[in-house]
Amino acid sequence: MFSDRVRIFIKSGKGGDGHVSFRRELYVPAGGPDGGNGGHGGDIIFQVDKGLNTLGDFRHNAKYVAESGQEGGKKRCTGKDGENLVIKVPEGTVIYDDASGKVIADMSGDNQCETILRGGRGGKGNMNYATSTMQAPQYAQPGQDAQELWVRLELKCIADVGLVGFPNVGKSTFLSRVTNARPKIANYHFTTLNPNLGVVDVEGGRGFVIADIPGLIEGASEGIGLGHEFLRHIERTKVIIHIVDAASTEGRDPIADIKAINKELENYNPDLLKRPQVIAANKIDVIYDDGETDPIQALKDEFEPEGIKVYPMSAVTGKGVKELLYAVRELLDNFKDEPVIFEREISEEEMFDNPNESFEVYFNEEENMYIIEGPRIDKMLGYTNLESEKGFDFFQKFMKTSGAIDKLEELGIEEGATVRVGEYLQFDYYRA
Question: If DSSP codes are grouped into helix, strand and coil, which group holds residue 286?
C-alpha cells in the first residue's frame, strides 16, 4: 500500500550519569575521587535511502528511541556512548514539527543525512569536582535529559513534470505510452489511486521524470475527492501538463476543466501557477468534424494568448505525443535547474524551549554574584551551542524575551557584576 504521510514519535538517548567513587588501592592512601563521566546519548538521524519510494514501513512502527549513554565507572572510566538511531526515508521526504506544522528538514537535494534530535550529554563524575578545599566530593552530575518530539513525515515526489487533469481524461494511458510505467488503466473514475512515476526517454539522452497525479476534481484543495491527498506531489515539479478530454466523450467542457484545476492548484499553493504549463488536448482520435465547432481551436483561442501552448494528441494512437514531449523538454531546458527545497522554518532552540517551565533570578551574597537557574535554564543550555554564532544569538535573545534581563535590573544589577547562568556559564553584565 502506498503511504505518503505518517506521524511518528522520536526520542534521542539520555546522557549517562556521572559516577561517584574513590580510588581504593593498597599503598595508595587518600587516592581521591575517580568517578568517571557518563556516556553521550544517541542521536536521532534521518537518512535518505534511494531504494525507498514510500513511507509504508512507518505504518507498523510509530516510535523511534535512540540508546541512552551508560553511567560512568570507577577508575575514571567514561561510560559507553549510546548508539545513534538512523531512520531511513525516501528522497523527497519533508519532516514537520507536528505541534507547530513548521518544516524541520527536507530530505532532498544535497541534504541526504540530517541529525534531528541530539542525545543528552553525559554527566560529569566526581573526579571533576575535586578542589583544594573539596578533596572528596560525594556528588556527580546527572546525564542530560533526552530530547523527544512528535513529527509528521510527508513524501513529496521528486519529478520534473506533473500530469494533472480530471478523472478519466487519459493521464495513465499517456504515462504508459511515453514511459515504462504500467499504471492500472480502466474506463472508470479514479483508476489511479496513487501517484505513478515514469522516466521519459528523449533523443539525445535528455530524459525527464514524469508523475501522474490522481485525478483532481473541484474542491480537491478542500479535501474533496482523492486529489487533495496527492497535491503535495506536484509541489516539486517544474512543468505542469494539463491533460483534457478534447473530444468531450463524457460531456465535459475542456476549457472549464482547465480553469477549475488551475483554481484548485492556486487554492493549494499559489506558487504552482507560476510554473510553466502546457495543455495536452487528448482523444483527438475520437473527435468528429460536425462542421460547427473545433475544440482544439477553441482551446488555443482561450489559453495561448496567456502563453499556455495547446498540443493536440491521442494517447491511444500516439499521434502528436512526440511533439508534446519535445515542447516539454524545451521548457525544462529553459527552466532554472534549481530543485524545489522546503527551507527549515523552526530551529532546534524554538522546538525545545518551553515558556511554561520555571526559572529564578536572585543575588547570592556568599558568592557575590547573580544567579539564573531552573529547569528551563538547564534545558536551554543543554540544546544551545554557545560556541556557534547562531547559538550565541539565540542565548542573547532568550535572555531578553524570557524576562531574565528585566529581573536582573529589578534586583538592581550594575554594570560589571558577575552573572552565573545554570551551573557553569558565567559572564559580566553590561547593558546593550
Answer: helix
State how far the alpha carbon of 400 is from the alpha carbons of 143, 338, 406, 431, in Å: 28, 39, 8, 12
Whole-angstrom Cα Rg for the chain: 31
Look-up of cell digits 507536528: 98
Q: What pLDDT tens digit does each residue of the chain (432 aa) get? A: 456 779 999 999 999 999 999 988 877 777 789 999 999 999 999 999 988 877 888 888 899 999 999 999 999 999 999 999 999 998 889 999 988 888 999 998 888 999 999 898 898 899 888 887 788 888 888 888 888 899 999 887 777 888 888 887 888 788 888 776 554 444 444 444 456 666 777 776 577 788 777 655 444 444 444 444 556 667 778 898 999 888 887 778 889 888 988 888 888 788 888 889 999 998 888 777 665 678 888 999 999 999 999 999 998 888 998 898 888 888 888 877 666 777 887 777 667 667 777 889 999 888 889 999 888 887 777 767 777 777 778 788 888 888 888 999 899 888 888 999 887 788 888 876
- Whole-angstrom CA distances from 294 to 20, 224, 255, 291, 321 are 89, 32, 13, 8, 20
The conformation of residue 51, written as its DSSP 8-state character, comes to T
Using DSSP bridges, classify how beta strands 418-421 and 425-428 pair: parallel, antiparallel or unpaired: antiparallel
Please state, in angstroms and rounded to a whole number, the distance separating the CA atoms of residues 79 and 72.
Answer: 4
**What's the whole-model pTM score?**
0.67
Q: What is the DSSP letter of 187?
A: S
Burial grade of 120 (CB within 10 A; 0-12, 13-18, 19 or more)? buried
- Cα-based torsion angle of the residue sequence 404, 409, 414, 418 in order, rounded to the nearest 10 degrees: -20
Q: What are the strands of the beta sheet with 103-107, ordered from one edge?
A: 63-65, 5-11, 148-155, 93-97, 103-107
Rounded to whole angstroms, how far apart are CA atoms 156 and 231?
9
Q: Phi and psi dihedrals of 298, rounded to 5?
A: -60, -40
Residues 6 or more apart from 203 whose CB is under 8 A from it?
none
Is the Cβ–Cβ distance between 62 and 7 less than 8 Å? yes
DSSP 362-427: EEETTTTEEEEESHHHHHHHHH--TTSHHHHHHHHHHHHHTSHHHHHHHTT--TT-EEEETTTEEE
- The β-bridge partners of 404 are none
Q: Are 41 and 143 in contact (CB under 8 A)?
A: yes
